Amino acid sequence: MSRIESGRFQFHRLRHELGNYSLLRMRHCDGVIVSMHQSGTHWLKFMLASAMAEHFGLPGPQYNHANDIIGGAKDTPTYPQLPELRSSHTIPPLLVANGLGAKLITLPPCVVLVRDIRASLVSNYNKWRERYAVPFSEYLRGDPSGHRFNSDIWWCIRFVNAWARMQTLNPARVKIVRYEALVQDPFQSLQGIADHLGLSLSDASLEAGVRAATKNVMSKRSDPDRPPGEINQGEDHAFAAYDGADRLFFSASSRTYLHNSLGYDYALWAVP
Length: 272
Description:
By secondary structure, this protein is an alpha/beta fold. It has one domain (about 5-255): P-loop containing nucleotide triphosphate hydrolases (Rossmann fold, 3-Layer(aba) Sandwich), CATH 3.40.50. It is built from twelve helices and five strands. It has helices spanning about 5-20, 20-25, 40-55, 100-105, 115-130, 135-140, 155-170, 180-185, 185-195, 205-210, 215-220, 245-255; strands spanning about 30-35, 70, 85-90, 110-115, 175-180. The chain has a five-stranded parallel β-sheet with strand order 2-3-1-4-5, sandwiched between helices.
């Protein structure tokens, strides 16, 4: 990345993080789920919403996004008797992502769902390939201004850096969950998430939530008002999408701009 491109990235990072206050608008909720794009958001929400419905004797989620139980920032709660949980892809503003702000502004418990950035980018590209209408290598190099793509490498780096900083500042409020851990042990991960959000869900309810959230069931509950492709039906290993130049670009960019890898080894390109 040239010095000009680096300057663009830093300028637009500040522009976005100084003007984004959606997290503050959710500070009176009982809990917030924040996620990277293409990191299993629908799956986690559907599992947790199904577990909550089982626990409180309510119908399961109407659609696979489960916004009737875990709403977006602007949704009206369908069931006022439930704890008010919200979900978002938001990046915390600089107003709270610093030592003074973290002390003065009380946030609800936040669960932050992350994924290997390389896999997230491939999944995002596959979902929006027709809209983007560019080769993967061009998409990978992204747009620091944030105008061309709904998620790219620069958005992911901003997201991870900001939330890693928030977790360091307020570890009691911010719990980071890796998508890969959710895949490996859905029940244990869901139990930890529920506990962090202050939900006293029984093991039976959590198990019901895990059982309910199959790809087959969720695929049949698509919202007709939303674009298709929200349920990933499987894809080749993400690393196969990267040619040699792509790998060099990603590795160099992550070394330079990513302040906390959250345990991912971005120097490793071997297929697990």
